[in-house]
Amino acid sequence: MTDHNRPFSDDERAGLYRAIYERRDVRSQFRPDPIPADVLARLLSAAHHAPSVGFMQPWDFIVIDSTEVRQTVLDIFEEENRKAADNYSGERNTQYKSLKLQGILDSPINLCITCDRSRGGTHVLGRNSIVETDLFSTCLAVQNLWLAARAEGIGVGWVSILNQQKLAKTLGLPEQVYPLAYLCLGYVSEFLDQPELQARGWRTRLPIEKLVHGNGWGQPQANPELKAALKKQERN
Ligand SMILES: Cc1cc2c(cc1C)N(C[C@H](O)[C@H](O)[C@H](O)COP(=O)(O)O)c1[nH]c(=O)[nH]c(=O)c1N2
């Protein structure tokens, strides 16, 4: 057996699940200390090893440390966030406005992960019927980076309350390049033990057994062993 085919040890497996369950979207707990270049390089490499349709690798990574650029993005956020608040009225509006939904200037690095929709030419293997597969692939790069960051003790916060055209212009993106994820990265004072939105009473995690169906939408999952095992998996 070659080395890379060896089974994961119990500790290795536990480490992977720990990163998955203890990963958090971070906005309030960033510390300003810089991320060393070799650590950032490991995160970017983890992202670059995500699966992609037809091995398209449609992503680019724009590493932003300029305060000026980050301030411009924060201004875009503030404008969009004011509009977003209008979706709620009464107590929910007050609650929405009390949420911190970005850490653009609190974090030392912002990272825009883009998707070049034309990479790989006019036809990419596997992207014949579902053209959005390039976007899906780029999301997987985001998740790889997010999990690797957690293992490195680095928090990541995704900021999507942004006008994409204004963001693209700020970053000088070519026409065919889509700003898929705007992320804030930095070491943190703590990782919360549950999603911040749940801790703040906005929304709770849905029970997994309600989300696992049988052989079609809405059909009950009949396997009692799976049902019992899912129940055991429930956590914050
Ligand atoms: C595509 C996308 C976009 C956003 C997010 C996530 C994703 C996947 N999330 C983070 C989101 O609120 C968070 O993931 C959930 O609340 C669950 O919390 P944990 O990630 O488990 O901590 C997020 N958070 C935030 O404060 N501002 C934002 O604009 C966004 N936007």
3D architecture notes:
The protein is an alpha+beta fold. The protein has 2 domains: about 25-205, NADH Oxidase (3-Layer(aba) Sandwich), CATH 3.40.109.10; about 205-235, no CATH class. About 40% of the residues lie in helices and about 15% in strands. It has a 4-stranded antiparallel beta sheet with strand order 1-2-4-3, with helices on both faces. Helix 2 (about 35-50) packs antiparallel against helix 5. The structure holds the ligand Cc1cc2c(cc1C)N(C[C@H](O)[C@H](O)[C@H](O)COP(=O)(O)O)c1[nH]c(=O)[nH]c(=O)c1N2. Ligand FNR binds near residues 24, 102, 158, 161 and 197. Ligand FNR binds next to strand 3.
SSE arrangement:
Elements: H1 10-22, H2 37-48, E1 59-64, H3 67-85, H4 90-98, E2 109-116, H5 133-151, E3 154-158, H6 164-170, E4 177-187, H7 196-199, H8 224-233
Antiparallel strand pairs: 1-2, 2-4, 3-4
Q: What structural category arises from helix and sheet content?
A: alpha+beta
Which parts are unreliable, with pLDDT below 50 for 5 consecutive residues or more?
none
Alpha-carbon distance between the two ends: 39 Å
**Heteromolecules bound:** the ligand Cc1cc2c(cc1C)N(C[C@H](O)[C@H](O)[C@H](O)COP(=O)(O)O)c1[nH]c(=O)[nH]c(=O)c1N2
Question: What's the CATH H-level superfamily name of the largest domain?
Answer: NADH Oxidase
The radius of gyration is: 20 Å
- What CATH calls the topology of the largest domain is NADH Oxidase
> What kind of assembly state do the chains in view correspond to?
single chain
| Backbone shape | globular
Number of separate domains: 2
Order of helices and strands: HHEHHEHEHEHH
Average pLDDT taken over every residue: 96
Total E-strand runs: 4
